[in-house]
Design a protein that fits this description.
Elements (H helix, E strand, L loop, with lengths): L4 H40 L7 H5 L2 E2 L2 E2 L1 H12 L6 E8 L4 E6 L7 H15 L11 E5 L9 E6 L4 E7 L2 E8 L2 H11 L4
Helix pairs in contact: 4-5
């Protein structure tokens, strides 16, 4: 019943050869898939600039589009000075890139007004709602989530700053005015 050591090693090496061959073939197929997805994505928006909604989509045809990743980083870079960043993560629930509010204490009310206008007119309308109905942006703040992660949520009626710790969430500030919420974030959840 017992195989000898030589026979076992021969079988192991045969299986390794099969795995290596399959891995090489898989890598080629994945590269072809990526090229097709990238070409399809480019062709889809070839005659126009990608919309904000396009830029927020994380997975297109089952994989991340490098083209859309680069375009989203390029597009959102112009809003860094007013506190909006595309940080690189994504929300699994919505398949959208994570946009973060990142405010410094020295930001002026005028900058906050500009950010509020941008969020209300262009961002919140295309951010997909979670199952709860909330549209969510993360807050990048000075504690770096030491005491919980913070988010800016909009449920269609009011804006809130929410804190999540170990899966539990609670609202720490609410207002119907986005500007008031941004002022609260600047004061208590700033980034330096």
């Amino acid at each position: 019943m017992n195989k000898d050591l030589t026979q076992i090693r021969v079988s192991i090496n045969e299986l390794r050869d099969i795995i290596n061959s399959a891995t090489d073939e898989l890598m080629l197929l994945l590269a072809e898939e990526k090229e097709i997805v990238e070409n399809n994505t480019r062709n889809k928006i070839a005659n126009s600039s990608p919309t904000i909604s396009d830029l927020l989509e994380m997975y297109v045809d089952g994989r991340e589009s490098t083209y859309l990743y680069e375009k989203s980083r390029e597009y959102f870079a112009k809003y860094r000075d007013i506190g909006l960043r595309c940080m690189g993560g994504f929300w699994i629930e919505t398949n959208q890139r994570t946009l973060s509010v990142c405010l410094v204490q020295i930001m002026t009310d005028l900058q906050l007004e500009h950010l509020a206008s941008l969020l209300e007119a262009d961002i919140f309308p295309v951010v997909k709602p979670w199952k709860s109905g909330d549209r969510v942006l993360s807050i990048f703040e000075h504690t770096l989530s030491e005491y919980g992660s913070y988010s800016l949520s909009f449920n269609g009626k009011h804006y809130s700053v929410d804190k999540r710790t170990y899966g539990n969430g609670k609202s720490v500030f609410k207002s119907t005015s986005l500007l008031e919420v941004l002022k609260y974030i600047r004061k208590y959840h700033y980034y330096e």
